[in-house]
Design the sequence.
DNA sequence: CGGCTATTTGAGTCTAGTCAAAGCCTGTGG
DNA sequence: CCACAGGCTTTGACTAGACTCAAATAGCCG
């Protein structure tokens, strides 16, 4: 409280230019998500401008930060932690449309209002961007718009794969498909070889796969009894037979 | 046949510059899709350049024009007719991810290879664009890229709505949801008030809604017996009670 | 009219859902 | 350190909604 103030003494403006060029870019340069997701497509110079319109925030586990139907004012870029994106029916049925983790961009599925809700399932660190501001940045940095189009295209591919899963796969095929994707994602990142940490509950998994908690549990047990996976006490899952998992998942490509 | 030739007499080249500026823009200007979809975002001047990279084609009913897994070389813009977009499992199960009609843009759900297949369910007139060429156009006409991002965003919203349908709705809710969307789309376009023409078969409908042909037929009969819709001999469907249809569909917004 | 396909309807089966209970893990407080 | 409360997960028994198999019906095109 007694330390150096970030307020500009002359104007009293918390967002004076001097801060933009020194403090904020440094925040971005040292950000844990500097080289993943949206920011990876920018050079350090361009990052200044993105920082200008973004603001780092933390969302505690269990707290929502987007509500379906609300005016869509922001985009979000996750730096750390995991969030679930979902849609609800009036009677309480829920469909989780995706899980967003480090580097993922959130908010494209919106017109004037959000088409989905979002809630942190772990503590989440994210950057919040004003939609209007970000659109204004497009003109100056078309690379960002290009990147968003790529992100949207990729999300469309994922969404169509999920439609195939929800419309045509059996319970065990759905779970195997999910584990395979999660397994590949983990394999891409450095660290442990094949032990997966699933941050979501069985209930989240059920809402994602279009099943009930009980069916998810039974499918997990079935895969375990077949020796395809091992389930630890802390919910960690190890893939013992990736090839068989892929076979059960009915993966095409 | 005896009229003025489109060939340039001096060069014999069918694609001489003189033709680009006169004949092709005329094709576009008179196109049935001039004021819908992608082309609506362009002024007549800009249309010249789009025409330069596009090529009109006709796909006969029942013929495929995109195959999942093939190298993604083109985008498509439908001028007339309807196509189904789908993904298949090795054992023949199929999920239709969407129906594309006049003005709809196809091809965003692709990285280096198409993530879906497409087949005409009516005779389809479309414009085919080379992906590389179109990307080159972005630099010159950012409005096109902006438009594509909007299209992608809208498709994401639709896709998430479809996930909710496939994962959490009952058979009759799925059919009612489909009819409601189709009804609203028809209401937006001029012409008959509430009589819907469904160009797809019951099989296509089943593959779109994640059901079987029999279940789709039974759900239609149920809605008919409740007096919500009327089904004509030629597959035409009239919505008699839109409010009840929406209620059954569990529409949120 | 006759063959073909698409659709509707019926009867029985099965996968996943519902309801219920037991087990397990975590965190808290004595 | 242990007991207990609470939530999450697993497992079991039964039900229900959608699927499968089968047959009848209705359009459609030559």
Sequence:
């Amino acid at each position: 409280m007694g330390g150096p103030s970030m307020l500009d003494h002359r104007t009293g403006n918390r967002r004076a230019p001097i801060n933009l060029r020194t403090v904020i870019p440094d925040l971005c340069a040292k950000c844990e998500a500097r080289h993943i997701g949206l920011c990876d497509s920018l050079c350090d110079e361009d990052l200044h401008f993105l920082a200008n319109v973004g603001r780092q925030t933390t969302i505690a586990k269990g707290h929502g930060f987007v509500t379906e139907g609300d005016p869509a004012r922001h985009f979000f870029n996750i730096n750390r932690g995991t969030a679930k994106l979902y849609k609800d029916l009036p009677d309480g049925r829920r469909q989780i449309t995706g899980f967003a983790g480090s580097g993922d961009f959130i908010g494209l599925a919106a017109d004037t209002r959000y088409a989905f809700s979002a809630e942190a399932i772990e503590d989440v660190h994210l950057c919040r961007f004003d939609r209007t501001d970000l659109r204004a940045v497009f003109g100056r940095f078309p690379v960002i718009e290009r990147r968003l189009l790529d992100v949207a295209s990729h999300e469309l591919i994922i969404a169509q794969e999920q439609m195939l899963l929800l419309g045509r796969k059996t319970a065990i095929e759905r779970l195997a498909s999910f584990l395979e994707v999660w397994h590949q994602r983990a394999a891409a990142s450095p660290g442990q070889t094949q032990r997966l940490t699933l941050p979501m509950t069985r209930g989240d998994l059920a809402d994602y796969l279009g099943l009930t908690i009980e069916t998810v549990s039974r499918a997990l047990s079935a895969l375990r009894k077949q020796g395809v996976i091992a389930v630890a006490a802390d919910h960690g899952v190890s893939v013992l037979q990736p090839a068989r998992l892929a076979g059960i998942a009915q993966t095409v490509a």
